[in-house]
Amino acid sequence: xxxxxARTWSAYRAHDNVARSLxxxxxxxxxxxxxxxxxxxxLESASKGVTAYLDAVDNLKSAEDFFTSKRIGKAGDDALxxxxxxxxxxxxxxxxxxxxxxxxxxxPVELEQLLKCLPSRSSAKDSAESQPNxxxxxxxxxxxxxxxxxxxxxxAQKSVQLGCHKQFVKIYRDTRSSTLELTLKQLGVEYVTxxxxxxxxxxxxxxxxxxxxxxxQIAVKLLFPSERALCDxxxxxxxxxxxxxxxxxxxxxxxNLLSFGQAISKSKTSPDKVFLLxxxxxxxxxxxxxxxxxxxxxxxxxxxxxxSTLVKxxxxxxxxxxxxxxxxxxxxxxKNTSTDGDVHPLTSYVGNYIKxxxxxxxxxxxxxxxxxxxxxxxxxxxxxxxxxxxxxxxxLDVKAKQYKDHALGILFLMNNINYIVRSIRRxxxxxxxxxxxEIEISLIGWNNHFLVLSSEAKDLVGDDWIQRRRRxxxxxxxxxxxxxWGKVLDCLSxxxxxxxxxxxxxxxxxxxxxxxxxxxxxxxSVIKARFKSFNKQFEEVCQTQMNWAIPDKELRDNLILAVAxxxxxxxxxxxxxxxxxxxxxxxxxxxxxxxxxxxxQTLGNLFAKKLPQ
Length: 613
Hints:
By secondary structure, the protein is mainly α. It is 68% helix and 2% strand.
């Protein structure tokens, strides 16, 4: 029995060994067959059937794992070597297919398609002027036919298994980068240097800035988000790759787009340039949050830095432009004055300049880093505005001293300071007010005007700025009356005409008070000489000042009224007391040429030059 059992057990073990061997051989044969089947597919082009090609790659990867984990001998080694060769060929073919599909599908986005993505747009002829509505929800343009996106995604995912994902990333970066550059080029965006901007004409430069702002909005709101979405779809689940691919694909286009802003900020400065810089600063700052969102992630840090650097450069350029303008005002030639005391072109320019600056309050406050510490000190912006005004006033003081006629110099100062006050006043009247405060303004003190100021506008010119300028204009008006009309009023003084003159109160700014009765010692010839002197002085002043200019009708009327309020009472008093000595003499009209009414009418002709019709 025992020998029979031994033989049976040996037969059983032999059968089991044979069965195991057959199973092992069967697995080897199955994988060898899979390699042969995959080989026939791999040797073909992937474009004939991507799904079948990817399945063949999967089979080869499975065979590679099998032959790597099993010790089969020379046959296994030969099979593994062949599998590796086929996988290398498959990787190259998949790269070619990825590149081919991506290149064929990547076309520059047409302008018309971009306009369709906007919530509202003008007609086709105005397409170049269209721009996104900041508060509207935009639909992103289609960069690649959606039918091919799954194929590209599968190819990209397979590159991970084959260890060739770096080549895929490079293909994606190069293809999408060049396509995005072409799209922006169609919009008129190319790399620009500061020298190219500097040589451009002012009109051309301004138009380009407006166009650049619109292109920046389209890129940030439409093109870059679309690129981000496409990258996320193709490299789904690979966050590091997605961010890297997106950053690489958009970096050059972003630099081209920002280069124009950088060039403008570095180009030669001029006073008017500040408004262009502020417009660009406003738009780039408005888009900054969207830039931060679309370029999120560590891989996009340089892109975010490039955008934020431009904002800072524009701010610094605007700040420098204002400082340089202030310095140029101080250096303005003092000999450049008007012959009639009119508002100087520099004054009107600066007045309008400050008015336009007030439209950029929020931006300027950011640029000058205004703070509300409540410590009573002036903020950076207020200091700059005050500095501009002070520079003009300093320059005007020097110019006023160039006039040989002191009265004309005073009139020049009064005209120019009045212009600055009224320019700011007109602006304040035009703005919509939220917080209001009523203050009384009187330019020279004759009429009261009530003006409502918003707290923001009030802060810009200073709490008591208008009141102080009002007092300055009042002082110039008083000084003008004394200097211009002092000699005329001296002729109406009773001093020297009688030896018994009662208490008289006359002065340059006052009237001839009550003059005592003239005595018999008063000579008629002296009275005639005084009337004659008055006529001569009055006519000379009027003849001269008819050619002087006060362009502000309200200021002109008030100043004439102020002169009349001093001159006419003095003349009536003089005429009443001393006229009887002359009126019965020969040629009395030669001396008593004017009635009070005639004087008033003549005064009305003063400062008529350049008076608005």
